[in-house]
Amino acid sequence: MEGIGRWALGVGLLLATLPVEAQEARLHVSTDSIVVGERFALSVAVESPSGSAVAFPEVPLGDAEIAPLLQFGDAEVFTARRLPPRLDGAVRVDSVVYEAATFALDEATLGPIAVMLIAGADTTILQTATAALPVRSVLPSAEAGLLPPAPPEPFPSPWLAWALLAVGALALFALLAWAWRRFRGESAPLIPRPAPYPEALQRLDALPLPTEDEAIKAYYIELADLVRTYLARTLHLPALELTTRELTAALDADARVPTEAVKSTRGTLRLADLVKFADLRPDADTHAAAREKARTAIEAVERTVHPPEPEDEGQTTGNGASGTTADPKHPGPRAQSPQP
User: Could you give the CA distance from residue 112 to residue 104 in angstroms, rounded to a whole number?
Assistant: First the structure.
């Protein structure tokens, strides 16, 4: 955060030395490459005639778990800091610095950013150009850390080792044969893996809320994994391999998944991504709300994919015209024979 603030001050000083032209919007990026989720700064400078006003896009209030509050191409914006305007003769320079992150792979497209220029009763929309920002992989390259092969080490004669190995194998075989004869027919049955829904609820109930900062990331990793595992086993989707954006798109296109489940899944996984990659640290209330949102997603999918069976209606047997129920344990009175 301090690095972004110092960069914003440097951008303001740099803009003060650049030649300006009327009604122009320029886009600047604080770095030449990033990794997924890394914070960086986007700055926008607008040159306009003196006496005009500039309105930059603002970060709205809302829940960043559901969807990005403000997005410029592949850049998701968290905060905005407007710098003081500068007058250069008849030209005014307004600028703003956005703190952003991206979850794109390989390359992120930043912008364009639309800015409103107000001069009297006239309003003009200025638009910046786009910028391409390479996204570095956090995985090590295949060539990294490779060492040349070492010469083979001399080994002693293997006969003693082979003899000991043979004796050990015979002893193990004899032990297994004795155990098989003693316990055959009494082997314990294998415990099958629970069904997807009970397994997901068991993992969810066993997941404690984090009380220390060091446990927050592990909590959200487990929360996202149990949701993805349930969806993979229930809907037969590669949920563990897809990105959050790809998975929510697949759920949105699946007619079996209700809208409530798509929204809850998107909110849970987006918050987990922000914690894992953007170093977000939610408060205790958000931890509990995220767990309940995961439960809502799982239960909504389960109700749709495996709806509860209707209860069987009791069947009755009519007894003559009266329609009474015949009870085999309490037979009715016998018919009396006619008197002679």
Answer: 16
Q: Tens place of pLDDT for every residue, the chain, 340 residues?
A: 555 555 554 555 444 444 444 688 999 999 999 999 899 999 999 999 888 999 999 988 876 666 677 899 999 998 999 999 998 888 999 999 999 999 998 999 999 999 999 988 899 999 999 999 999 987 766 555 666 787 877 767 777 788 888 899 999 999 998 888 877 755 556 688 899 999 999 999 999 999 999 999 999 999 999 999 999 999 999 999 999 999 999 999 999 999 999 999 999 999 999 999 988 899 999 999 999 999 999 999 999 998 877 765 444 444 444 444 444 334 444 444 444 3
β-strands 114-119, 107-110 pairing: unpaired
- Rounded (10°) CA dihedral 317, 320, 322, 327: -40
DSSP string covering 304-335, please? HHSPPPPPPPPP----GGGTPPP-TTSPPPPP
CATH topology of domain 2-136: Immunoglobulin-like (2.60.40)
What is the C-alpha to C-alpha distance for residues 177 and 238, in angstroms, rounded to an integer? 43
On the 0-12 / 13-18 / 19+ scale of CB atoms within 10 A, 199 is middle
Please say whether the beta carbons of 209 and 217 come within 8 A.
no
Beta bridge partner(s), residue 99: 41, 79
Please list, residue by residue across 295-331, b when 16 or more beta carbons sit within 10 angstroms of its beta carbon and e when fewer do: bbbbbbbbebbeeeeeeeeeeeeeeeeeeeeeeeeee
In this structure, the chain runs to a length of 340
| Block residue for tokens 């495996």 | 306
Beta-bridge partner residues of 313: none
Closest to 95 measured CA to CA, from 107, 82, 109? 82
C-alpha 92/C-alpha 95 separation (Å) is 10
H/E stretch holding 198 reads: helix 196-205
